UniProtKB/TrEMBL annotation:
GO terms for cellular component: nucleus. It comes from Glycine soja. 3'-5' exonuclease degrading single-stranded small RNAs. Residues 342-351 have a biased composition (Basic and acidic residues). Residues 342-363 are annotated as: Disordered. SMART domains: EXOIII (SM00479). Gene3D superfamilies: Ribonuclease H-like superfamily/Ribonuclease H. It is found in: Nucleus. The keyword Translocase does not apply. InterPro entries: REX1-like_exo, REXO1/3/4-like, Ribonucl_H, RNaseH-like_sf, RNaseH_sf. Residues 46-207 form the Exonuclease domain. Keywords: Exonuclease, Hydrolase, Nuclease, Nucleus. This is Small RNA degrading nuclease 3 isoform C. GO terms for molecular function: exonuclease activity; nucleic acid binding.
Length: 414
């Protein structure tokens, strides 16, 4: 099935791949599935799909608690609960469906899962998943033969930066939902859904136009009275948020399936949309856009400790209409190669090259490059801000060292 290999290539050459799949594979505990000098293995078209459920640990990291794997016939290859080796701060039971009681008698470890996955994938099997990098990150598994269903389908406006949810893709492509709204996740259902999406894409034709009109949920007026605060450092408390953002509002923490690590997200809820708009306009920050093109501000402020930190403030807005004609190709793969050098140059994947996918439209390509440049500028601003924070922290550490040294000298004198 050459189509499966072409979808692997489509994933590897997607502009977001270098950002999402840059794993710290050299770190302790990581497993790398290596295909060096195995050209026959790289030609395998067998596929399995994986999905994981994660919990939040007390150290701010995430750990896998359930792993499900299915083959292309949707037969279950693995359905296991996993015992994390760290203390768990939040089981996220309303999302994961896993509670502390479920793990009491579990003996399966992450190392056990890694051993199984490495043996399974070493034969060259293609790994399928939705936003698969999140699953690979908690599995601490680096595997290059992947198909990411959040990459291989595209909305009608032709944007490569939107990440459709698995549920919305299933509604648009398979004409059914993975789960009812508010129901806990079931990683077995999610793995099967990801495989179904890939099979639907292959059946339709990898090179054929497959524009997806993603389901847009109506945003009620009550939602428009909110502002989304995200990438908030854990060192910033709710009281500080009230000092940063003008107006009268209450804070509601935003739950997340994947977690934020050292950061979290929250909603600032105002009494009306005009009040929320006014607060957004008056908050001091750099005007940017998120990956969906929505306006947001990068706000930099100083804590009482003297440390400078950042967070983002975004309006709760619906998708704006796009009058542009959709491009003929769902993914302009060849046009994205220059911004995906990792996929092209990484020696682990150089043997998985496939036939070309066509030129695509020059205007569409120019717009995509412009969007990528905008993202790059935003990243540079964030990096510069972080650099300033590090400089400030170095200064604080230096001052502490001087104070300690001074106190030691005084003690010695006495």
């Amino acid at each position: 099935m050459l189509a499966a290999q072409r979808l692997v290539q489509a994933t590897l050459q997607h502009p977001l791949y270098p950002l999402d799949y840059s794993f710290p594979s050299i770190d302790e505990g990581w497993i790398v599935v290596n295909f060096k000098n195995k050209p026959k293995v790289m030609k395998s078209t067998e596929m399995v799909a994986v999905d994981c459920e994660m919990v939040l640990c007390e150290d701010g990291t995430e750990a896998v608690v359930k792993v499900c794997v299915v083959d292309h016939n949707l037969e279950v290859k693995l359905d296991k609960l996993v015992k994390p080796d760290k203390e768990i701060a939040d089981y996220r039971t309303e999302i994961t469906g896993v509670s502390s009681q479920d793990l009491e008698a579990v003996t399966c470890s992450l190392a056990d899962i890694q051993k199984y996955m490495k043996k399974l994938l070493s034969s060259g099997i293609i790994l399928v998943g939705h936003s698969l990098h999140n699953d690979l990150r908690v599995l601490k598994l680096d595997h290059v033969r992947v198909i990411d269903t959040s990459y291989i389908f595209q909305s009608l406006d032709g944007s490569i930066h939107k990440r459709p949810s698995l549920n919305s893709l299933c509604q648009a492509v398979l004409h059914h939902e993975v789960r009812e709204k508010g129901a806990p996740h079931n990683c077995l259902d999610d793995a099967k859904a990801a495989m179904d999406l890939v099979l639907a894409k292959i059946k339709h034709g990898v090179d054929k136009e497959f524009p997806i009109a993603l389901v847009q949920e109506h945003v009620p007026e009550s939602e428009l009275a909110k502002l989304l605060l995200h990438k908030i450092p854990n060192t910033v408390n709710i009281e500080t948020l009230h000092k940063i953002l003008p107006g009268n509002f209450k804070i509601e923490l935003k739950p997340s399936r994947k977690g934020q690590g050292a950061n979290y997200s929250a909603f600032a809820i105002f009494r009306s949309p005009p009040e929320a708009d006014g607060a957004y306009e008056n908050v001091q920050g750099s005007q940017l856009k998120d990956t969906y093109g929505h306006p947001q501000k990068l706000v930099t402020f100083r804590l009482s400790t003297g440390l400078s930190v950042n967070l983002f403030v975004r309006k709760m807005v619906t998708e704006e209409p796009n009058d542009q004609t959709p491009s003929k190709r769902a993914l302009q793969i060849n046009e994205a190669v220059d911004v995906s050098k990792k996929a092209k140059m990484d020696p682990k994947i150089e043997e998985d090259a496939s036939a070309g996918f066509g030129k695509g439209d020059t205007d569409a390509h120019s717009k995509e490059i412009e969007a990528l440049n905008q993202q790059l500028k935003q990243s540079e601003m964030v990096i510069e801000s972080l650099r300033k924070q590090l400089t400030q922290k170095d200064f604080e550490i230096s001052m502490l060292h001087k104070m300690i040294s001074s106190k030691k000298k005084k003690k010695q004198t006495v």
